[in-house]
Amino acid sequence: MEDRANKFLADCPRTILYSSEEFKDIGFIIRSAIDTELQFRDVLCNVDGRDYIYENDTCSDDCFGYKQMVWAKSTEVGCAKQKCPLSDGSKAYLSLLMCFYTPGDVHQAGRPYEQGSSCSKCSQGSGCMQNQCNAKISSRS
């Protein structure tokens, strides 16, 4: 996913990929800033769910990024960032940071997870790490 995010940002895109067949099963978060280099920790650690209301699956404000980050069915994530020149010829730049998630749903229909105890619905043979299901990796000696 990181390679796909890097590839997408490499040409400093000015449009978002909602209608692209190549990205139909990929969810994403994108942030931008002018003359400020975005840092992964600043963007991803500041996505919060205070505006998301689980009971009726609504948002009191923008919670697109939150829903995508906690989307339970996503199994892969990859992020990239890019500095892009502005088209006005100035020295200013546009900083882009994007994360791809798969499987993803840009429409985010339905709740992003089922309520309950962490890891209570992990599949047989998987483990629980930091309150998330994970594949158990067998060690070889």
From TrEMBL:
Source species, domain of life: Eukaryota
SUPFAM superfamilies reported for this sequence: PR-1-like
Protein name, per record: SCP domain-containing protein
